Amino acid sequence: MKNICDWNNCLEEGFYKAPIEKDNSKKYRMLCLSHIREFNKNWNYFEGMDDGQVYEFIKSDMTWHKPTQSFSSSDNFFKILWNNTLKDEKSKYKINGQFDHINKFKFNSNDLKAFDILGVSIGIRWKKIQEKFKKLVKKFHPDMNSGNKKFEDKLKVITLAYTQLKNTYKEKN
User: pLDDT per residue over 112-158, tens digit each?
Assistant: First the structure.
C-alpha cells in the first residue's frame, strides 16, 4: 500500500516522516521529497517559546531530558555502588569501623604522595601516621647514620610529607 503525500492535494508518494506536534510524540505525517524540503525550511521547534524556555530546553537536552543527581546525593547509583564495595572490603578484611573517619576527608594529590612517602595506607588514623613518622625519624636521622647527607635529605622529604598530612588532618577536625 502506497502512502500518499499528506500535503494539500498532493498526489505524490510520501516517503518522509514529518512530526505533527513538537512534543516528540510518535505522531507524524508522510510527505513527498519536495514537500518535506518545504516543511523543513519552515520548521522551527522553538517557535512560540521565550528565551528562558529555549535555554531550559537546550540545558535539559544535554542530559536527554532526564533528571540528574548530584554525586553527593544519598541515592546516587555510583555512590551506593562505591559504599557497597567499601562495606564488602571491610567485612572481607575484618576492618569494620577502622576507616569510618575517612568519609570526612578529601585528599588531594599532595596528600596521596605524602601517604606514599610515609608508607602508610590512605586515610589511616592520625595516631598511626604519628607512630610511623616517629619510626622513620629514628631510622633516617643523620645522627643514626653517621651524618650521611643522603639520609638527611630523605628525612627532609619525610618531614614535608608528615607536615602535609598534619595540615590536612588539622583542617578536617
Answer: 888 899 999 888 889 999 999 999 988 888 778 777 778 888 888 89
pLDDT tens-digit map of 56-72: 888 888 877 777 666 56
Contact partners, residue 135, CB within 8 Å, separation at least 6: none
With residue 71 as reference, give the H or E element that holds it: none
Is residue 147 included in any domain, yes or no? yes
Q: Any idea what the CATH number is for the domain that residue 145 is in? A: 1.10.287
pTM of the model: 0.41
Split into its structural domains, the chain has a count of: 2
- What residue numbers bound the domain in which 126 lies? 96-172
